[in-house]
Amino acid sequence: MKKLLNGTWVLIADGEKALFLINEGDVQNTDLQVLRKEEQDNPPNREQAANRRGRVHQSTNHGKSAYEDTDWHQLGKERFAQDLAEYLYRQAHKGQYTHLVLCAAPDVLAILRDEIHQEVRNRVIAEVPKTLTNHPIDEVAKIIRAELETQS
């Protein structure tokens, strides 16, 4: 059965904010404390795109087509998740944690899964595909404990 042991790290992330928490309590009395906060300024794509979409003339007929525009907002989310994965690796390599719970928006969790190093992956005890960045920490603890019970 998976448990939120003392010293377990919890990462709560979406595409723009992340909280690194540590359980300073025990299995029965979870006490999540903030270790680190990360925030990224990632405005909506419409505010980041500089120009109209590029156009190309068709060689076979007289029409025009638009190129697919770069989704700068999505790229920002991906870079943020990559930075989080890198930080987790550095801390794991230093021996800062032995157990980790990943709580992230489903799209961010997918990126984290792809990006985390094997050394981090070996320490992940649970994944919670939910956006919890705006929840109070005591509510987050309840949600994580419930998820751990269902994943066991």
What overall form do the CA principal axes indicate?
A: globular
- Radius of gyration (CA) equals 20 Å
Return the domain count. 1
CATH architect. name: 2-Layer Sandwich
Distance between the termini: 5 Å
Order of helices and strands: EEEHEEHEHHEH
Task: Count all strands and give the number.
Answer: 7
CATH topology: Nucleotidyltransferase, domain 5
Sheet with the most strands: spatial strand order: 3-2-1-6-7
CATH fourth-tier homologous superfamily: eRF1 domain 2
Q: Biggest β-sheet: count, sense, barrel?
A: 5 strands, mixed
Describe the structure.
The protein has a single domain, classed as 2-Layer Sandwich (Nucleotidyltransferase, domain 5). It has helices spanning 45-48, 72-93, 106-115, 118-121, 137-151; strands at residues 9-13, 17-23, 32-39, 55-57, 64-66, 100-104, 124-128. The strands form two sheets. The chain has a five-stranded mixed β-sheet. Strands 4-5 form a two-stranded antiparallel sheet. By secondary structure, it is an alpha/beta fold. The protein has five helices and seven strands; from the N terminus they run βββαββαβααβα. The radius of gyration is 20 Å and the shape is globular. The relative contact order is 0.21.
